[in-house]
Amino acid sequence: MIASVIDTARWTAYYRALESERSDAIFRDPYARKLAGKRAEDVVRRIPRARASSWGIVLRTVVIDQKILDAVQTQQVDTVLNLACGLDTRPFRLPLPSTLAWIEVDLPEVIAYKGSILTNDRVACRLESIGMDLSDSDARRRLFAHVDGTAHRVLVVSEGFLLYLSANTVAALARDLHAFPRFSYWMTDVTSPLLLRLDQVFGRPVQRWVSPMRFAPRDNRAFFEPYGWTIRDFRPLAVEGERLHREPPFARLLRAGRIVLRGKWRDAFRDSSGVLLLERSSQPAPVLPGGIRRHTTGTLLKLRHRHRGESKESIEEYRMEYTGWNPLVPALELLAVILVIGAAIVIGRRLRQRG
Ligand SMILES: C[S@@+](CC[C@H](N)C(=O)[O-])C[C@H]1O[C@@H](n2cnc3c(N)ncnc32)[C@H](O)[C@@H]1O
Q: What is the pTM of this model?
């Protein structure tokens, strides 16, 4: 069904098209429909409950739109570097200054497809589209060096990209980005282990066709700080969804969780996904003897690694384990459902016997 990587980009463009065509649309992307094409519509129609996963894409679009405009207007950002841009059309549809440099990167086939569709459309700023494989670390460092050499202050955007990478790959990207001093900000959407789990349960039909989500750190601060990125702002999509009336299918569950739970558990429900704005800190967290980076937060990580005296690589392996999916969980969930149904049947029979 989703046969190529372009389909994943078409798929998100299709959700932007659906939102844009609503009478109460919270943003308008006039190019999304033609970029998504008929193919995206067919794919979404055939995948059960696929439309239900549009809320996150719609909300992150709005939040990232606002934050880009804010960074350009108030933080002297003169260059936006959009990694894995897909069929994003912000350089065409946002009121950006004509002096802004916008560099977008995706796989060559995606960039070629986009260029073949957006032929005569007016771009607001200076747009450069680069087709390259971002998993080629030498090529991406060459690109970053080129951008760093021409910019004053860069905002990196990675939207709908990190979620599908392993923690190792995100860590390597974070390190590479920090190596270039003009890369001042980095905006990305993030998911928590809780939402990853809900998505594995409710989003299964979609997961069969699209890459499964992988990157879901429990503590974003603990994950990004050691690579020199501090959190400047976090916008929870649950809060934005309530404000803008675009809520996920399990919104009631999230809301009930927030009412019933207290303290950090309540925050975990509210912060289960969102848009993170990271700011470069002058130094990554210091490296301890033996190459272990000291985490300024994330006590659990710190204690385990100090205790075991592991190498740097194993920290990243541990993070993989930290974000990974435990097959015991669905087994226990199934057991709980069977027990509840069994108990309901027994209680029902007893009540009928009494009656
Ligand atoms: C889910 S789409 C998101 C696209 C866009 N950022 C958006 O939000 O609509 C993921 C994008 O990552 C791109 N991508 C995946 N692996 C890549 C790689 N190794 N190098 C460059 N782009 C990649 C895909 O081509 C696709 O456009």
A: 0.80
